[in-house]
Write a structure and sequence with these properties.
Blueprint: H1 2-29, H2 45-57, H3 62-67, H4 69-119, E1 124-128, E2 134-137, H5 139-145, H6 149-152, H7 163-179, E3 183-190, E4 196-207, E5 213-222, H8 224-239, E6 243-247, E7 253-256, H9 258-264, H10 268-271, E8 302-307, E9 313-325, E10 328-337, H11 339-362, H12 364-390, H13 396-424, E11 431-434, H14 436-446, H15 448-454, E12 457-462, E13 469-472, H16 473-490, E14 500-507, E15 512-518, H17 526-531, H18 547-557, E16 562-566, E17 572-579
Parallel strand pairs: 12-14
Antiparallel strand pairs: 1-2, 1-5, 3-4, 4-5, 6-7, 6-10, 8-9, 9-10, 11-13, 14-15, 15-17, 16-17
Length: about 575
């Protein structure tokens, strides 16, 4: 029992210490001086005395109190630690109070600088609170609308939204606000001059350091010019006479024009989101190891096969080009139906073949004469050899010479026949590298008899090193044949001394060879120069008027051009150019 009473006495002493500390803390909180940084660790005298007096007042407890002094010391140590901790917290509170006062004094300046920064921003900025009502608009916004801040506050800003956009705009704002999610929307807002301009408005929810929602802040940019440019692009995109597909980075169709629907037989909604390869299977195929569509965007045309909705295949020319829209990268595919072009090319080949047949028919007499010479020589030499063989003794050396002549004459005849056959045959063009000088010499040899009969001298002048051009030899020979025959016919009425044709081969720069066929005829009138290359225009009684037109088409197909000029002295010159190919 005495031990319990002693413990109670010690407890009362400790309670006295606590009460004193609380009283001291209240006095300091009320402004009675600040907490000293050095806290005394000595036990308060009155507290120690209070415990002793209580023990002494109860008979027989004095010695027990001393015996329990260890408990008193433990409690006293804990109370001293509590006092030091409380003093430290008081110091921190004092510092926080001073810092808070400093921050509160600087807040007006910070807010002023913050508003100045927002007003200097190149975009229109707004802010709203937790009630969805707008509480701030920066100077660019107010300058744009021509209204005051008071007029725009709350929901006042919505008065300038275009009526057709108002409901959609409000729904996006409210739903995003309630969900505390970012949003981007486009709407028309009335400018100070009354014109409506398209804005792109981006809103972001704002929270404090504790995550408490504070409202939204948003920024707007005028995108009217961008939308107008997009509208022009869409108009051009929609009404171009070729099929156009906009593809995403996975090669899937994002946009098509009306011509695509007509060409492939699909409705637009059937194509969106589908792989472009459903229309052109090889469209996304290249030698590149990269599977991305932009790896194919070389802009070069490729001849491919496409498939319509009904399963029929048809030839197309396809090009891929990369297009950037802000941060997005898309691929623009243009697809042209080559069916008509191929058919037109086939008709041109047919026409060129008929023109060659017509030309060769007109040269039948000359060709017959050209063949007669080697055939007659072969016959004569064969008869002579026969007589020599029948003689006794046989002159073998003479027979050998005659046989050599027969072989040469046979080669001449074969060359004429081969040239005629090449020009009259009907077949697919065979493109290869050719020396233009060799092609010209072959045609001149073929026309040798015709030139002799007309009394015309033909000379060939090749300047510069030999070069190669890429083309179909038969078509190139047809061009030279037409130009030489035109030159021959242009001198039909000239005196014999002036009947000469010069073929000049020169370099026109490092990548082009130029061929000139010059005659000494009567020249060309202004009307003839303007019309000479048009089809079915001719000055000949029995001419078709196709030779020069076909020749120009052939030259242009080979990457060159064909034109005519009058000479300064007499006659005219026809020129054509061809690109030189690198054979290294």
């Amino acid at each position: 029992m005495s031990m319990v009473i002693a413990a109670v006495a010690v407890g009362l002493g400790a309670l006295t210490i606590v009460l004193l500390l609380i009283r001291q803390s209240r006095r300091r909180a009320a402004g009675h001086g600040r907490v000293n940084s050095k806290v005394s660790t000595a036990q308060p005298k009155n507290a120690r005395m209070s415990g002793w007096r209580i023990a002494k007042a109860i008979p027989g407890l004095g010695e027990d109190y001393r015996a329990n002094s260890a408990v008193d010391r433990v409690l006293t140590t804990k109370l001293e630690h509590h006092a030091r901790a409380r003093a430290a917290r008081t110091r921190d509170t004092s510092r926080d109070s001073i810092e808070q006062q400093r921050v509160e004094k600087s807040l007006p300046g910070i807010e002023t600088r913050f508003r100045a920064l927002l007003d200097a921003a190149p975009v229109m900025i707004w802010m709203s609170d937790t009630t969805r009502l707008c509480t701030f608009f920066n100077k660019p916004w107010l300058d744009f609308t021509g209204r005051t801040l008071e007029q725009e506050m709350g929901n006042g800003w919505s008065e300038g939204v275009h009526p057709d956009d108002f409901e959609r705009c409000l729904n996006v704002y409210v739903s995003s606000f309630d969900a505390r999610k970012n949003f981007t929307m486009e709407y028309r807002l009335r400018r100070r001059d009354g014109a409506y301009r398209w804005l792109r408005d981006t809103g972001v929810p704002q929270t404090d350091a504790d995550g408490t929602f504070l409202g939204f802040v948003g920024s707007c940019v005028d995108i009217t010019d961008l939308r107008q440019a997009e509208e022009k692009f869409r108009s051009a995109f929609e009404f171009l006479p070729v099929a156009i597909l906009m593809l995403d980075q996975r090669g899937r169709i994002a946009l098509v024009n009306e011509q695509t629907e007509r060409l492939f037989g699909y409705r637009r909604n059937e194509l969106i989101g589908q792989p472009a390869t459903m229309l052109v299977s090889q469209l996304m195929t290249s030698s590149s190891s990269s599977p991305r569509p932009e790896a194919l965007t070389t802009g070069a045309a490729r001849d491919l096969l496409a498939r319509r909705a009904d399963g029929t295949e048809f030839p197309v020319e396809a090009k891929l080009n990369m297009v950037r829209f802000e941060e997005d990268v898309s691929v623009l595919a243009t697809i042209v139906d080559r069916t008509d072009r191929i058919e037109l090319h086939r008709h041109r080949q047919e026409l060129a073949h008929l023109a060659r047949l017509s030309t060769m028919g007109g040269l039948a007499a000359s060709f017959a004469h050209e063949l007669n010479q080697p055939l007659t020589a072969i016959l004569s030499n064969t008869q002579a050899a026969q007589r020599l063989v029948e003689a006794d003794p046989v002159d073998l050396d003479e027979v050998c010479e005659i046989l050599k002549d027969i072989v040469e004459d046979n080669a001449r005849a074969s060359e004429v026949i081969r040239g005629i056959r090449a020009l009259v045959k009907k077949g697919v063009p065979e493109f290869a590298s050719h020396d233009p000088a060799v092609v010209i010499c072959d045609v001149v040899r073929l026309l040798r008899s015709d030139a002799i009969q007309r009394g015309i001298r033909v000379s060939i002048d090749v300047n510069g090193a030999p070069v190669k051009v890429y083309g179909d030899k038969v078509q190139l020979e047809q061009v030279m044949l037409n130009l030489l025959l035109n030159a021959f016919e242009a001198m039909d009425g000239c005196v014999s001394n002036d009947r000469r044709v010069t073929v000049l081969v020169t370099h026109e720069g490092p990548q082009t060879v130029r061929v000139a066929v010059r005659d000494h005829g009567t020249g060309l009138s202004g009307d003839q120069l303007a019309m000479i290359f048009k089809p079915f225009v001719t000055s000949k009684p029995n001419g078709l008027g196709l030779g020069l037109s076909i020749s120009r088409g052939i030259v242009e197909t080979h990457g060159g051009r064909l034109w005519a000029e009058n000479n300064t002295d007499q006659g005219a010159t026809f020129y054509f150019t061809l690109p030189i190919v690198d054979t290294a």
